[in-house]
Amino acid sequence: MIGNDIIDLHLAERESNISRRGFLGKLFLPEEQDIIAAATQPATMVWLLWSCKEAVYKIIHRHTRERLYAPHHYVCALQEVTSTIVTGTVTHQQQTWFFRSTGMGACIHTLAAASPSLLEEVQVFTGYLFTTDYTTLLPGRVFYKDADGVPFTRNRYTCESRPISVSHHGKYLGIVSI
């Protein structure tokens, strides 16, 4: 199972006041708020942690088909932090998921999967949102969503179906597939 999330940092800065009273407490556990406070770029860390929770939420939604807004049920832990990549885990109901976030410039793109090895197998397609013709990013495949809004692609010739995760924010688009 895979998930992804993408954050346009410029749009997030314009649309959200992370300094607003209660904002961090609504989304993050005390340990996560400590990570944010200790970060050299706290605003970027807010959106990094949020994208990790969202990427795992997409995996959970695909599995359960339930839409439940509960950010405190997703616990982030960082493992490796560099200027361009962050890795770590997100725990949800005693299950651990692994993530890798990249970008750290104008956007953050997070991939999440059930294992670190699965993260290595994921095919990543990124672009600008105005490239809405997914066939450009996924040649030979047809994009569709099931009745619960869960995205898939189907091979035009063999009709073989694959799960994908689609994320867009601001001017950025991210798609991951196995």
From TrEMBL:
InterPro entries (UniProt xref) = 4-PPantetheinyl_Trfase_dom, 4-PPantetheinyl_Trfase_dom_sf
Q: Which domain of life is it from?
A: Bacteria
Q: Annotated Gene Ontology MF terms?
A: holo-[acyl-carrier-protein] synthase activity; magnesium ion binding
SUPFAM superfamilies hit by this protein: 4'-phosphopantetheinyl transferase
Q: Does the keyword Transferase apply?
A: yes
A family per Pfam: ACPS
- Please indicate if the UniProt record lists Transferase as a keyword: yes
The UniProt keyword set, sorted, is: Transferase
Start and end of every 4'-phosphopantetheinyl transferase domain? 2-68
- This chain's protein is named 4'-phosphopantetheinyl transferase superfamily protein
